[in-house]
What we know:
This protein has helices at about 5-40, 55-60, 65-95, 100-110, 115-125, 135-140, 155-180, 185-195, 200-225, 230-235, 245-255, 260-290; strands at about 40, 50. The protein contains twelve helices and two strands. By secondary structure, the chain is mainly alpha-helical.
Amino acid sequence: MSAQRRWRNAGVAAIFLAPSLVTLLAFWIGPMIGTVWVSFQDWNLIGVPSFVGLDNYAELAKDADFHAALLHTLLYLAGYLPLVLILGLAVALLLNAKLPAMTLYRAMFFLPVVSSWVAISLLWKWLLNPAGGLVDKALGLVGIDGPGWWTDPTWAMPSVVLASVWKDVGFVAVILLAGLQAIPKDLLEAADLDGASAWRRLRSITLPLLSPSLFFVTVISLINGFQVFDQVWVMTGGGPGGASSVVVEQIVRYAFSYGRVGYASAMSIVLFAIILVVTVAQLRLQRRWVQYD
């Protein structure tokens, strides 16, 4: 192919890619570069930014509130990730079965996914209300006194985890359901004819062949989990007593309540670096358990 033809093809490709590239530059790459620049400034969104170098990062390294918020975010992930993956797999296996009205069941499980986080958070705040919420009433029927849920420092984060899992399990189930339906049926039928139990088929055939889908939802769920915000802001506001404060909630609070945009930007960069490291580590570790053949 001649150089002139290659340049012409590149120009045609650039024309078709331009709308997406402009959008990517304007709404993703541009703001990211701007956030890095602002993280070296002392700025309140109104006055003139003042360059402070690495002072925001140095303060962040000694900020006990930020360390606590990061710990709460990790605790949230420790409760959220296993639950959403296990329940998502269970729902996917159920939806993959040949049962009547299966389309209705799939729509029911996916409905929370397309619902607003604010609506879901308000719903669960009402359900878990210690002063007459439906969950405590149901527990009272079997003689159990419900905890304070989102009003109790010990139960505030578990309350957020419950709401998050309920909303996201449908998304995980749909992705895993697609992976289940791609597994060749003859492998499962051959294992069944050989006398393999349901558990053995799941462990030896289904899970290995489903590992690419499991890897995808694990990465996506981890990234989303590190950025948990809406449900915390609506249900607990980071309380009580900062018991459910998370990193993104701190970023929003410092940027828009305290007017410390540079400091909030530094938090954003640190969070981005953590997510990047965790994602790269997952990409490296996938070779040990993900099977693409």
